[in-house]
Amino acid sequence: MIWVPILLGTFKLAVFGTGMFFAIKWHYDQGKKKEEEARAAAEAALEETE
User: FRET pair for 41, CA 20 to 30 Å: which of 5, 6, 18, 25?
Assistant: First the structure.
């Protein structure tokens, strides 16, 4: 029965690791999206002044 906590601990680490990966990826993608929106707004403002 010593395999039960080992199996559950491994499963827990896999679930938390996967969750952390997607949380970091989501935040990174949101940052890139904001930068792209800011760049597009700056380009639009620049074109508007010409």
Answer: 25
Q: What is the sign of the dihedral through the CA atoms of 30, 35, 39 and 44?
A: positive
How far does the chain reach from its first CA to its final CA, in angstroms? 75
CA distance 5 to 12: 10
**Residue 22, amino acid:** F
Write down the pTM of the prediction. Answer: 0.71
Residue pLDDT, tens place only, 1-50: 999 999 999 999 999 999 999 999 999 999 999 999 989 888 888 777 76
